Amino acid sequence: MEPIRLTTQEFYLYSLLVHAAIGLLLGLIPLTIGFIKHQKRHAFFGFLACILGGAILGIFLSLPLAAIFSWLIFKASNSKPHIEENDNVDSPLS
Q1: Which of 12, 16, 66, 90 is most open to solvent, judged by the fewest CB atoms within 10 Å of its CB?
Q2: The domain containing residue 54 runs over which residues?
Q3: Distance in angstroms (rounded) separating the CA atoms of residues 24 and 54
Q4: Given a cut of 70, is residue 42 above it in pLDDT?
């Protein structure tokens, strides 16, 4: 059986794809937390940041980004109460 041979460009491309996939998996953490806590903006930006950070530095950047965005989501959800769509806060009848 012949060993696998890669050029330098192929190695960098495969490495980038593997690290981006790791960032994608870690980005699911803030994405899931953000959708549960109704913080979709933080969730989406955390997801993208983890993918890009994973592609750049792998787990060394995507793991701290996932932790930071998860913390931001928890902090933002605790600071303002979530209002359901059916709640009529400005209704004159309430």
Answers
A1: 90
A2: 25-78
A3: 8
A4: yes
